Amino acid sequence: MKIFKLLCISLAAAMSVSAVSCGRSESSSKSSSSSETITESADTTTEETDDSEENTTEEKETEASTESGSSEEKSEDINDYITVDEPTPALWKATDPETGNELYMLGTIHVVSEEKFKIPDYLMDVYKDSEGIAIECDARKLRDTVNLQEYLSYQVLTDGTTIKDHISQKAYENGVEMLKELGMYNTLLDNYVPGFWISEIESLKLLKIKNISSEGVDWKFSDLADKDGKKIVEIENFEIQAKAITAYTDELADFMLSSEEDTPISEYAAEISKLYDAWAAGDPDKLAEIDDISGKLPEELKDDYAAYQDVMLHERNKNMADAAEGFLKDGKKYFFMVGTLHFAGAEGVDDILTERGYTVERVK
Predict the structure, then answer these.
(1) Does the reported pTM lie above 0.85?
(2) What is the pLDDT of residues 259-289, one digit of tens each?
(3) CA 17 to the chain's CA centroid
(4) 3-state secondary structure labels for all residues of 79-123
(5) Domain ranges in the chain?
(6) How distant, in Å, are the alpha carbons of 29, 137, 147, 233, 268 from that of 238?
């Protein structure tokens, strides 16, 4: 059963490989207090492994799977599946009726086609007329080890438990198998929350697809802003992003890890292309429809999924609307851009601003 979807491919996609690589070397790095926390967990796992012949065997198997996984060729080209060649992503203009201040808001996507993606002229016009950009979080900072370890620290179990204490043996074994098939399992990952495993598995699958980049729309504009000397404002921080990505109850994470199957890369590429096409066609509601997994969940987990969406989307939508409102009141001419799902449905950033008395219109 295919469970994981775009909610997993957010900031995690931008640093999945770096995160796992960092996990492998954490025991030799203590550049910050948060990395020390991770290191302590990793050291504990290492000691336990030394005492266990079974775990030693598992480590050898892990090394073998890592080696074979890293040498696998990418087998599918995302451009063979994408149907929208000229992207026209959704853009809104919010206006403060009292001051006349305006704020342009773009719905982004965090993975793009390296060949087919290009910034449309109407977005470039908004960008050129702006004094800066406002984005969710600057994922480029995760190239720095200290920042990366800070991000990882929010996803490490610090209560003395391991992932085995939070999910069933079936879910654990299935998760390990998928990570091994992706060439990225390491026993140190047992110290991370189940949601981290989910986001890692989904994000690492991107590496199997040709011509797809996790340097998404906001990343592209951030590079432009740096080049042009424009200001970059972050709406969220690493803690908010990490906790949103991993906001699964143990029960929901258990079901997802137990149910997820290793699907052909062609099927995965087709799934990602549908999401990209919905974004490129400027259809946030279609994107949300494709991304919705509620129909695949048992009844007893529907509330868990709703709670996850509250953390992942609705609570963040309110905070994003707060930031947008602040820019409007202060007359900051920023180009505001957050994930397209934050504009989908009846509780999007645009709807919240409308309820607060601002005039919000879709730019055609």
Answers:
(1) no
(2) 877 778 898 899 889 999 999 999 999 999 9
(3) 13
(4) HHCCCCCCCCCCEEEEECCCCCCEEEEEEECCCEECCCCCCCHHH
(5) 6-362
(6) 20, 7, 9, 14, 28
